[in-house]
Amino acid sequence: IPRLALGPLAGNPFPDATPEFFASMADALSRGLDHALTIVTPFRELHKEDVIRLGQSLDVPLELSISCMRPRHGLHCGACSKCRERYDAFREAGVPDPTTYATPPPR
């Protein structure tokens, strides 16, 4: 595998989402695997609502994506911060949310 694509989004405040981190990881993996590997982050400048709009424009089945930290029986829990971000992002994107939540996020 010469290239690995990951999906951190704009506004991710954690140090493991920086270009420097991914460059270091690519270097370590390249050394360990003994072949060149690059890590790309194509959504790094996009917010979650931008990705939702992009997915809809490409006819991506958004209901198959998952962002929940505590899924329950294959469903988004509806209570964690990632479910709330997802719910809000669909609203902000102006796209109907196809997600089935175990517990609907607060409106």
Helix- and strand-based class?
mainly alpha
- Rounded to the nearest angstrom, the distance between the terminal CA atoms is 43 Å
Radius of gyration, in angstroms, nearest whole number = 16 Å
Number of strands: 2
**Helix share, percent:** 25-40%
Q: Describe the global form.
A: elongated
Largest sheet: 2 strands, parallel
Question: Taking strands numbered 1, 2, ... along the chain, how are they ordered across the largest sheet?
Answer: 1-2
Structural account:
This protein is mainly α. The protein has helices at residues 19-33, 48-57, 81-93; strands spanning 3-5, 38-40. Helix 1 (19-33) links the parallel strand 1 and strand 2 (38-40). 11% of the residues are buried. The model has no long low-confidence stretch (mean pLDDT 93).
Compose a concise summary of this entry.
This protein is 36% helix and 6% strand. It is mainly α.
Secondary structure elements and their pairing?
Layout: E1 3-5, H1 19-33, E2 38-40, H2 48-57, H3 81-93
Parallel strand pairs: 1-2
Helix pairs in contact: 2-3
